[in-house]
Design goal:
32% strand; two-stranded antiparallel sheet; 4 helices; alpha+beta; binds zinc ion; single chain
């Protein structure tokens, strides 16, 4: 059984399971609207591809119809905007989810609540594997993409606060009212107490 006998956009999972083979392919990120959207627009990603492999299994269960399972392996990398330094960050995606296939959404919802470690997927008929791959990549992306270590330091600078001004006193300074809330306990004398008169502010360019 060859891969080209299966159409990933309308995949017959039972046939794939019966064939006992894996199918694989490559997907151009730019052809998937939602993947293209999450990418950092300032970077022009060269030929971003998603590599995927899929295979299905029919598992016997005691006293019932066979269960269909789908195993996906997906690798790619997406260029997103780092939320700390705003530079592009390359995020590697390498996931290998298993899905138990059921016939309808109601069954999927019930099983999903019962089986914590298993993803349940409703597919009554051919499955759009490419949309599922896109969904799984999007789910795996961090909510707040960031470099582990940003390539550049965000420009911040210290400015001197005049001694005696509310901002220089220990405690919480409310800039809106210009009032100072005293700390509950007298802070111990700190070796860097002099730094208290310095405040970190974004540099104005
Ligand atoms: Zn960064």
């Amino acid at each position: 059984m060859k891969t080209r006998e299966f159409n990933p956009a309308r995949l017959d999972l039972t046939k794939l399971a019966q064939a006992g083979t894996a199918i694989s392919g490559e997907l151009d990120v730019s052809t998937r609207e939602r993947l293209a959207q999450v990418q950092d627009s300032s970077s022009t990603p060269a030929e971003r591809k998603v590599s995927w492999t899929a295979r299905a299994e029919l598992r016997s269960q005691r006293g019932g119809a066979k269960q269909t399972w789908l195993h996906l392996e997906v690798q790619t990398s997406l260029m997103m905007q780092c939320q700390r330094c705003l530079e592009p960050v390359d995020l590697a995606v390498d996931i290998a989810p298993w899905f138990r296939i059921v016939a309808d959404e109601a069954t999927a919802a019930t099983l999903d609540a019962e089986l914590e470690d298993v993803d349940v997927l409703a597919a009554d008929g051919p499955l759009d594997l490419l949309t599922l791959i896109e969904d799984e990549i999007l789910l795996s992306l961090p909510a707040v993409p960031m470099h582990e270590a940003c390539p550049r330091v965000i420009p911040m600078t210290y400015v001197a606060v005049p001694p005696g001004s509310p901002a220089a006193l220990p405690g919480v300074f409310d800039a809106a009212t210009g009032t100072q809330t005293a700390p509950e306990d007298e802070p111990p004398e700190h070796p860097f107490a002099a730094l208290a008169t310095l405040k970190l502010v974004p540099r104005k360019n």
